[in-house]
Amino acid sequence: MSRSNRLPAQLPRLLVERAVAAALEEDLGLAGDLTSQATLAPEAKATASLSAREPGVIAGLDLAAAAFRLAGDGVAFSPKVTDGDRVAAGDLVATVTGPARLVMSAERVALNFLNHLSGIATLTREYADAVAGTGAQICDTRKTTPGLRAFQKYAVRCGGGANHRYALDDAILIKDNHIAVAGGVTAAYKAAEAFAGHLVAIEIEVTTLPELEEALAAGARVVLLDNMDNETLRQAVAINAGRAKLEASGGVKLDRVRSIGETGVDYISTSQITMAAKPLDLGLDVVVER
């Protein structure tokens, strides 16, 4: 197991408990865990080990802890790692003790959150490691699972990535369709500049080098270079000459990401880290005392 030197990301407790309560309500239904009620005595106690079955990066421990805590009184969740830690296959992630019925009832909700978010953190770490030394920062996008955005973006931070805007009200991102309706790059940027408050960031998307030159002339300080090949990205960096922060996006896969970083862009955003990450295989092995 290894730890990151970065300050840890953190989720608001209220946000965590609200999401976990909804997930438990969905899973328990109106009658509760029928299987555990049918097979386990009310007084039975359980001790469980939550372990990694493959290497990865952990994210979502607070959600797993909340699942066991909200399941009922007497369940103790004791993490042995922290979010953002790398684990090897076989590493102990946490232990759980308490009434067997409650432990079993919360197991799936806890693992669903933990496996999913750890998968995102793991893939993000692969992307971040791939661009190490290039100066580029890996970022996520708004392509997230509805209802899970805050948690998926949290997992990106645990994996060493950075967050793009959270929602439409977080910053102004002028995309190609805005430009088309507004009447061009300059018109769209100047309209956004006149509208935005002094703390609202403005980014504009361009798809060609002439559009980049127009955006820079209009005063753009952050420019998204959409679906450009590496040679065009290198030319964009040369044209920019340090005037604006440049973000490359579109078609960013793991096998290409380092070459994108080597073009000199500042940021690389990709939906792959939130939408294509497979769950990390973590399992809960339970011993019940009868």
Structure description:
The chain is an alpha/beta fold and 290 residues long. It folds into 2 domains: 13-128 and 277-289, Alpha-Beta Complex (Aldehyde Oxidoreductase, domain 3); 133-275, Alpha-Beta Barrel (TIM Barrel), CATH 3.20.20.70. The protein is built from 11 helices and 12 strands. The chain has helices at 13-28, 34-39, 61-71, 100-130, 149-158, 176-182, 185-195, 209-218, 230-240, 254-261, 272-275; strands at 45-52, 56-57, 76-79, 86-87, 92-99, 137-139, 172-174, 202-206, 222-226, 245-249, 267-269, 282-289. It has a 6-stranded parallel sheet with strand order 6-11-10-9-8-7. Helix 8 links the parallel strand 8 (202-206) and strand 9 (222-226). Helix 1 crosses helix 4 (100-130), helix 4 crosses helix 5 (149-158) and helix 7 packs parallel to helix 8 (209-218). The radius of gyration is 23 Å and the shape is elongated. The chain starts with 12 loop residues before the first helix and ends with a strand. The model has no long low-confidence stretch (mean pLDDT 95).
Elements, N to C (H/E): HHEEHEEEHEHEHHEHEHEHEHE
Q: How would you classify the helix and strand content by structural class?
A: alpha/beta
Number of domains: 2
Radius of gyration: 23 Å
Residue ranges: pLDDT <50 for 5 or more in a row? Answer: none
Per DSSP, the total helix count is: 11
Inertia-based shape: elongated
Widest sheet, order of strands:
6-11-10-9-8-7
Tally of strands:
12
Average pLDDT, all residues: 95
* Beta-strand percent range: 15-25%
CATH class of the largest domain: Alpha Beta
Q: Can you name the CATH architecture of the largest domain? A: Alpha-Beta Barrel
